[in-house]
């Protein structure tokens, strides 16, 4: 029996990279996509042999076609798809720079990119396979600091999960979402905030986490690996939060 195959979009850093490494250790053949040349180069050096890295921009359907063709030629099919590629922009609604182009870019990557990647990959996904969306806690719980539209894109994705689960159930394909809460992936450091602001944000965030710390990419990866596996064979249409208890206080 051949090894299962997993596609991970946005898999060259953070949660995607941790998931690729974990699935590879568990016997998967893994193909990941990325757009940033620096993270692609670093991932290619750090990934073990057997993890394939393909440059692809989630905005481009032509590049998505190329990824799917690469999977067809290398592996012939798929067993799991982790739709993880996304961008975040902290842009308050009153900010002058929050224009139509910024709005469209968020939806182009986070919604259009996810939907059409899945649509194009579905013919390769074996019956009984697993689809996991990375949604994020902001889709269901408020995040301050100008994250409203980023959260809205994730909410749009989350709203597709139950309907896709019903649509694909005849093929025994399971569709679920994971919603990471405060996870230490370094992504907020890339938003251009000063170090002292980042430190204050970190303190304020941890103070709201009942478990008293940030989560790790590896902890999210463990949940994705579970949902991809036969152990989650009766789980579909669900959104599972990995957030250390954020939001459970009355």
Automatic annotation (TrEMBL):
Q: Does the keyword Disulfide bond apply?
A: no
* Keyword flag Zinc: no
The Swiss-Prot or TrEMBL record annotates one GO molecular function as:
oxidoreductase activity
InterPro entries registered for this protein in UniProt: NAD(P)-bd_dom_sf, SDR_fam
Keywords from the UniProt entry: Oxidoreductase
The record's section on Gene3D superfamilies has:
NAD(P)-binding Rossmann-like Domain
Q: Which stretches are transmembrane?
A: none
Q: Which family, according to UniProt? A: Belongs to the short-chain dehydrogenases/reductases (SDR) family.
What is the protein name given in its UniProt record? Short-chain dehydrogenase/reductase SDR
Q: Which organism is it from?
A: Streptomyces violaceusniger (strain Tu 4113)
In the record, what lineage is assigned to the organism producing the protein? Bacteria, Bacillati, Actinomycetota, Actinomycetes, Kitasatosporales
């Amino acid at each position: 029996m051949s090894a299962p195959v997993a596609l991970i979009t946005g898999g060259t850093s953070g949660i995607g990279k941790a998931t690729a490494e974990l699935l590879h250790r568990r016997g998967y053949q893994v193909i990941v996509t990325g757009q940033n040349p620096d993270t692609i180069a670093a991932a290619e050096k750090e990934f073990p042999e057997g993890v394939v890295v393909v440059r692809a921009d989630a905005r481009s359907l032509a590049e998505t076609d190329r990824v799917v063709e690469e999977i067809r030629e290398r592996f012939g099919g798929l067993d799991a798809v982790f739709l993880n590629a996304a961008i975040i922009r902290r842009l308050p609604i009153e900010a002058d720079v929050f224009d139509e182009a910024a709005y469209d870019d968020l939806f182009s990557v986070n919604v259009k990119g996810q939907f059409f990647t899945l649509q194009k990959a579905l013919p390769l996904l074996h019956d009984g396979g697993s689809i996991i969306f990375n949604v994020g806690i902001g889709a269901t719980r408020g995040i301050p600091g100008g994250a409203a539209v980023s959260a809205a894109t994730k909410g749009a994705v989350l709203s597709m999960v139950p309907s896709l689960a019903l649509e694909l159930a005849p093929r025994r394909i399971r569709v679920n979402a994971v919603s990471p809460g405060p996870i230490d992936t370094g992504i907020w450091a890339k938003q251009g905030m000063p170090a002292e602001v980042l430190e204050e944000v970190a303190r304020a965030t941890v103070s709201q986490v009942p478990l008293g710390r940030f989560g790790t990419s590896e902890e999210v990866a463990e949940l994705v690996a579970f949902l991809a596996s036969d152990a989650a064979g009766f789980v579909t249409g669900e959104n599972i939060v990995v957030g250390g208890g954020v939001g459970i206080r009355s």
